[in-house]
Amino acid sequence: MLPRFLALGLLAAEVLTLFLSCGHRSANPSPPNPQGPAPGTGQPLPQPNGFPRRLILVPPASGLYHAAFPDFGGYEDQVSAQRIWDFESLAGKPITWAYFSNNWFTGIQFPALEVAEIAAVAGRVPFIRIMPRNDQDILPDPTYTLDAFLAGTFDADIRRWAEDARDTNIPLLVEFGTEANGDWFPWNATWNGGAQKTGYGDPNEYDGQERFRDTYRRIVRIFREVGANNVTWFFHVDCYSCPDTPWNSAAGYYPGDAYVDWIGISCYGPQEPGEPWQLLTDALDDTYAGLAAISTTKPMALLEYAVVDDPATGPKNAWISDAMSALATGRYPRIRAASWWHENFDMSNLRIDSSLSALAAYQSGAARPQFVTQPQWSWVSLRK
Question: pTM (2 decimals)?
Fold first, then answer.
């Protein structure tokens, strides 16, 4: 692997080339890209004079962003431009961002090579899921506890990560605490205090949620201290809380509007054969109002959605058509981005090309003009 400083230097050089070419790079020297030029990440303009600002992703003028996790492997970190191009070739439309995980299995390090591959080679926006977890699926995590974050154990490493993010000099999308209200991840309240109220902080607040909120805020403050003002922050929950208890409500994890730019949600259909059939619209009709109430001002993104391909469970093509039609026609008006989880693992083939009928349904949905690819950026005031 290239040294970190060399990877960052290569990224800066490639992004400069991208900027000088008017902020666009073709999806691939040769692959099909029938919808026109690929969206470029470009290079942030010099910060406006006056008060400090942050450059963040804002919703498109109309419609919603078309994005994906384009099959980056089982641990979601096998990033390659070719996988992005392969997905786009299948979908018939470029994606705005490529979603991947920055796993901390062996330590805390900024994913410079992965970011360079997405931004400088593929010409897409990197979306980084910060995943402080071990590689043994141990719960609770023996290293990355919320108490350890709050004690400052990882501050120096996070500061270095933030400095590396800053030094890319390109816009990045970042989330911490993926699907915070799901007990399958170690930052969930189940593993950090649950229903207790007297072990940490405010005795009127649930300890697990309060620890998460304070950890999220601590990380964002470190980024602001080092001037990593090229990061758009996402808060990410599942559309259903597991367990479904007051101390695990999605809203209870929210760090506040001062720390978050977008509200992200995961909302899947059945992910394995034989699971109960549920359309995306069924799930969102049930949960959208509550999720939208987490913040009345922040845009929302469907960060993960997909469904298994198993005819005995239900028709995947119909699920896709129903989902993309509802999103495109504004049934959920605050949702301004949708990112498909394109992967085949174990018994769960979630890829858009799992069958010819599924692929045709996705291509038809993505062809709607409401699914847009060009990212829009804006300078906003820096709030401490």
Answer: 0.89
